[in-house]
C-alpha cells in the first residue's frame, strides 16, 4: 500500500519550511541592502566554482557597495526601519530553523 | 559462548562500524559540497563542522534505529531467522558498493547499499519468500524516485524565490554574497539531520546482530555503547571526507552560487526533516543531489550537466541490486561455516584495500577538491548574465 497522502504532506511541509527560511533570509538581505548595509562576503578560499576573486576585486566590490550605500535615497529613519526589518527577517528565519531542530529531536517534544 | 559465535559477532560489529565510517565519508558531500563550492566555508572547516554535527546528531534520537529492519525482510514465524552470518554478508555487500561508488565519485545512497546487501543475503539464506516486495516498493523503491524529485522541485522554487527577492533592476550591488553566511547554517542543519538519520542505521544493524545471538532482548532499545561507537565512527568518516563525491556534487552537476547553495541546502534539510518526522524514509544522498539539480535549473543562465546527473542516476539504479549480489555471494560463502566467514572477511578486506590503493592514483583531497574548476574560471572570462546586462541599461 503506497501512502500517497504521506508523500503529499512531506512535500507540503518541506516546501513551506524551505519557502519560509529562504524567503525570510532573502528578504532580510534585501532590507539590509536597502538600509545601505550591503553585505560583501568574499569566498573563504578561492573555491568559488565560477569565478576566482582576487583581493583587488573583493576590495572593489566592497567599495562599490559603500558607494551605493552613500547614494541611498532613504532618510535616516527609513534606513533604521529597513535595518530593523532586516534583523526581524533574520530572526524569523532563525526561528524556522530552530523549529526544524525541535522536530528532529524526539526528546524535546516527547 | 561458543568460539565461532563470538568470532562472528565481533566481525559483524567491526564491519558495521566500518560501514558507518564509509557512510560518513560518502555523505559528507550531502551537507558540505555546496558551501565548499561557493567558498562559504573552507574545505577543512566544512568537514570538521560536519563531523561535529554528525556526532551530536547521532546522540539526538534513536527512532530510526528501532525500525531499521523496516519489515522488508520477514522475520520470525514463517520468515527468516536473522543470523549474524546474514547480517555479516549483507554488510560486506554494502561496504564494497559504497567503496566502489566513492572511487567513481558517485553520490549513491548508503541506505540503499545497506538494504541491498541485507536483501541479497536474505534471499540466499531463505529464498524469495523472505522478501516483502510490497514493503520494498513502498518504503525503498518509490521514495528513491520521489525523494530527488521532491527536493529538486522545492530547491527550484526556493532558488527562484531567493533570486527574485534580492533582484535589483538598477544594477547596484544586490548583497547576494550575504547568502554565504546563511549557507553556514543551512549546511549545518543538513549535517545534523544526517547524523540523526544515518548513524542510526548502523546502530540498528548492531542491535539486530546482538538480538540474533541473544546478547540482548528484542524489547530493549539501543544500548548506550552502541550509540557511542556508532556516533564516533560516522563522525570520523565525515571528517576524513569523501572529496571525490564533494567534487561531483559541488561542481560536477552545476556551478553553484551562494544563493543557489543556500536554497539547495535548505531544501535538503527541510525535506529530510519533514520526511523523517512524518515517518517517510528518504535517502539523504538522493535528496541532496535532487536539490543541487533543482537549484541549477532555478537560476537563470546556469546549466545542469545532465551527463553527470545521468551517471549518478545509473549509480542509484544499480545500488540496490549490486550490493544485493555482493551480499548474496558473501552469504553463500558464509553458509559454509566458520571458514567461509573468515574467507569472506579476508576477501572483503582485500577488495577494500584494492579500491583504496586504486584511489591513490588520482587523489582528490581538500587541496584540489574544486580548484580545477576554479582554474578554468580564471582562464575564461565569463560574460555577465544576460538578465543583468539587459536591466542595467
Q: Pairing-aware structural class of the strands and helices of chain B?
A: mainly alpha
* Fraction of helical residues of chain A: over 70%
Residue-averaged pLDDT of chain B, rounded?
A: 80
- Contiguous helical run count of chain B: 15
Describe the protein.
The complex is a heterodimer of chains A (110) and B (393). Chain A has helices at 4-34, 55-70, 76-104, 106-109. Chain A contains 4 helices and no strands. Chain A has one domain (4-109). In chain A, helix 1 (4-34) runs antiparallel to helix 3. Chain B is an all-alpha fold and 393 residues long. Chain B has one domain. Chain B has helices at residues 3-38, 43-60, 63-66, 84-103, 110-126, 133-166, 179-212, 224-240, 243-252, 258-277, 284-298, 306-334, 338-359, 371-379, 386-392. Chain B starts with a helix and ends with a helix. Residues 371-393 of chain B have low confidence and may be disordered. At the A-B interface, helix 1, helix 2 and helix 3 of A face helix 1, helix 2, helix 6, helix 7 and helix 10 of B.
List keywords for this structure.
heterodimer, A: 4 helices, B: mainly alpha, 74% helix, disordered C terminus
How would you sum up this structure in a few lines?
The complex is a heterodimer of chains A (110) and B (393). With 110 residues, chain A is mainly alpha-helical. In chain A, 73% of the residues lie in helices and 0% in strands.
What's the structural blueprint in terms of helices and strands?
The complex is a heterodimer of chains A (110) and B (393).
Chain A: H1 4-34, H2 55-70, H3 76-104, H4 106-109
Helix pairs in contact in A: 1-3
Chain B: H1 3-38, H2 43-60, H3 63-66, H4 84-103, H5 110-126, H6 133-166, H7 179-212, H8 224-240, H9 243-252, H10 258-277, H11 284-298, H12 306-334, H13 338-359, H14 371-379, H15 386-392
Amino acid at each position: 500500500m503506497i501512502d500517497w497522502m504521506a508523500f503529499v504532506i512531506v512535500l507540503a511541509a518541506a516546501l513551506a519550511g524551505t519557502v519560509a527560511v529562504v524567503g525570510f533570509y532573502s528578504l532580510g538581505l534585501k532590507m539590509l541592502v536597502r538600509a545601505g548595509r550591503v553585505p560583501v562576503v568574499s569566498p573563504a578560499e578561492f573555491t568559488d566554482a565560477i569565478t576566482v576573486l582576487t583581493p583587488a576585486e573583493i576590495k572593489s566590490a566592497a567599495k562599490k557597495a559603500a558607494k551605493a550605500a552613500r547614494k541611498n535615497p532613504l532618510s535616516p529613519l527609513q534606513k533604521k526601519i529597513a535595518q530593523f526589518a532586516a534583523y526581524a527577517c533574520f530572526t524569523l528565519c532563525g526561528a524556522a530553523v530552530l523549529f526544524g531542530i525541535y522536530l528532529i529531536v524526539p526528546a524535546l517534544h516527547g | 559462548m561458543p568460539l565461532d559465535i563470538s568470532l562472528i559477532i565481533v566481525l559483524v560489529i567491526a564491519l558495521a562500524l566500518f560501514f558507518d565510517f564509509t557512510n560518513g565519508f560518502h555523505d559528507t558531500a550531502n551537507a558540505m559540497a555546496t558551501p565548499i563550492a561557493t567558498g562559504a566555508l573552507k574545505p577543512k572547516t566544512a568537514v570538521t563542522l560536519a563531523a561535529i554535527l554528525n556526532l551530536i546528531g547521532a546522540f539526538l534520537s534513536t527512532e530510526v534505529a528501532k525500525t531499521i529492519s523496516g519489515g522488508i525482510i520477514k522475520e520470525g514465524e514463517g520468515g527468516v531467522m536473522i543470523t549474524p552470518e546474514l547480517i555479516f554478508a549483507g554488510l560486506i555487500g554494502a561496504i564494497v558498493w559504497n567503496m566502489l561508488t566513492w572511487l567513481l565519485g558517485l553520490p549513491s545512497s548508503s541506505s540503499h547499499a545497506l538494504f541491498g546487501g541485507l536483501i541479497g543475503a536474505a534471499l540466499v539464506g531463505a529464498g524469495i519468500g523472505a522478501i516483502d516486495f510490497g514493503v520494498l516498493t513502498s518504503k525503498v523503491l518509490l521514495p528513491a524516485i520521489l525523494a530527488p524529485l521532491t527536493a529538486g522541485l522545492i530547491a527550484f522554487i526556493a532558488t527562484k524565490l531567493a533570486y527574485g527577492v534580492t533582484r535589483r533592476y538598477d544594477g547596484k550591488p544586490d548583497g547576494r554574497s550575504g547568502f554565504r553566511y546563511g549557507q553556514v547554517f543551512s549546511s549545518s542543519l543538513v549535517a545534523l539531520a544526517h547524523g540523526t538519520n544515518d548513524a542510526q542505521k548502523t546502530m540498528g544493524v548492531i542491535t539486530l546482530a546482538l538480538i540474533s545471538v541473544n546478547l540482548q532482548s528484542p524489547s530493549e532499545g539501543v544500548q548506550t555503547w552502541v550509540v557511542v561507537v556508532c556516533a564516533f565512527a560516522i563522525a570520523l568518516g565525515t571528517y576524513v571526507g569523501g572529496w571525490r563525491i564533494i567534487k561531483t556534487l559541488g561542481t560536477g552537476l552545476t556551478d553553484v552560487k551562494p544563493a543557489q547553495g543556500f536554497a539547495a541546502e535548505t531544501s535538503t534539510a527541510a525535506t529530510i526533516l519533514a520526511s523523517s518526522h512524518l515517518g517517510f524514509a528518504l535517502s539523504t544522498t538522493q535528496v541532496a543531489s535532487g536539490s543541487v539539480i533543482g537549484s541549477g535549473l532555478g537560476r537563470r543562465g546556469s546549466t545542469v550537466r545532465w551527463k553527470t546527473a545521468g551517471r549518478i542516476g545509473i549509480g542509484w539504479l544499480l545500488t540496490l541490486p549490486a550490493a544485493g549480489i555482493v551480499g548474496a555471494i558473501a552469504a553463500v560463502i558464509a553458509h559454509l561455516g566458520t571458514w567461509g566467514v573468515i574467507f569472506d572477511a579476508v576477501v572483503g578486506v582485500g577488495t577494500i584495500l584494492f579500491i583504496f590503493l586504486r584511489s591513490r592514483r588520482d587523489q582528490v583531497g581538500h587541496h584540489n577538491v574544486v580548484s580545477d574548476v576554479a582554474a578554468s574560471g580564471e582562464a575564461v572570462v565569463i560574460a555577465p548574465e544576460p538578465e543583468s546586462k539587459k536591466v542595467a541599461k
